[in-house]
Amino acid sequence: MAYLDLQNVSKLFGTVAAVKGFNLAVEKGAFVSLLGPSGCGKTTTLRMIAGFETPDDGKILLDGEDITTVLPNKRGTGMVFQAYALFPNMNVRDNVAFGLEVTSGHPKSEIDQRVREMLSLVRLEETAKRYPHQLSGGQQQRIALARALAIRPRVLLLDEPLSALDAVVRVALRSEIRRIQLELGITTVYVTHDQEEALSISDRVVVMNQGLIEQADSPEEIYRQPKTRFVAAFIGTANQLNGDVVDNYLVRFGETTLRAPVPSNLVKSSKVVVLVRPENVLIHAAAPDDNTKNVLEGTIQTMTFLGSITRVAIDVNGTRLVTDTTAEMRTSLNYNQHVWVSFAPEACQVMANQ
Ligand code: ATP
Q1: Architecture of domain 4-233
Q2: Is the Cβ atom of 305 under 6 angstroms away from ligand 1?
Q3: What does pTM read for this prediction?
Q4: Phi then psi dihedrals of residue 115, to 5 deg
Q5: Which tens digits make up the pLDDT trace of 83-139?
Q6: Is any ligand 1 atom within 6 A of the Cβ of residue 13?
Q7: Ligand 1: distance of its center to the CA of 206 in Å?
Q8: 215-223 contacts, C-beta under 8 A, 24 or more apart
Q9: Which listed CATH number (3.30.1020.10, 3.40.50.300, 1.10.10.10, 2.40.50.100) goes with 237-352?
């Protein structure tokens, strides 16, 4: 049975349906991210788990107990917010101790011991006497994490905890969060709009759009087998070639026919889109002699240097197709050059064009 179970949960704000019929079962110890564009309902979902919002419909179960209307401080959840959520007038020790001090029955020695454990967990033992303004943004968020974990929550909830930090700190801290989560084995729900963040630290990613779940799967499945066009477009870069189904292995694309596995529900003449990731597209200065691949001709539009790769955009009969090349290959390419691209039928994913 799922440890945290959201069953058909909905939330309306006036006429805005922020979350619609949301179903999510989270296993004990799993790290699940809610990912999606601004306004898709991520924070509202998290706030309903925390108890800061009450669903208009549906149920939330934690370890088999219905917590839908239980007060936030009685749920056993720990929350980390976007930024600046530490108490500015309290030092680090008192911030971390706060949750234990407001619940009666903890002797001072036990609280001190727990604070030391938490500061050691986030590797900031030396900061106990400092005040929040004497810490960097990244350190403040680590203390916020220590504070959320000090009460031994059943579930850890994080709402865009890294979005106010600079890029380098963000990358370092996200692996810290994952390390700590794995060390404690704590069930975690993490809200972010940053796909790289979600894909890099989660066991499961829930992609949301307009209050609905588009797909909930492992990071690899989300990237390699997007189930909807929205997911394909939102995660990474996907070339999208519009065409019509010819048969179960052929799609008409302009004057050419592409070989691609067509799902059986898409019958002849259906309007479809063929998705192919840039890293699966090869670029050639001369026509490739490889009849196992799909081959298209086009003209180079732009070349963007991105460090380890150069992203090349090619105009193929009015459709923009991008591919990633090495610096070595890049030197033999020029703007407006006539080129060929090739990609394997297996690298294509065909979806209904709705
Ligand atoms: P962001 O990444 O921008 O924080 P989000 O995916 O977390 O977005 P939510 O904050 O959950 O999205 O908001 C979902 C929808 O509900 C939005 O249309 C938002 O304007 C609306 N909304 C959220 N909270 C309230 C509120 N308290 N009152 C009215 N509308 C709200």
Answers
A1: 3-Layer(aba) Sandwich (3.40)
A2: no
A3: 0.90
A4: -60, -45
A5: 768 999 999 999 999 989 888 778 899 999 999 999 999 999 999 999 999 999 999
A6: yes
A7: 17
A8: 216/24, 223/199
A9: 2.40.50.100
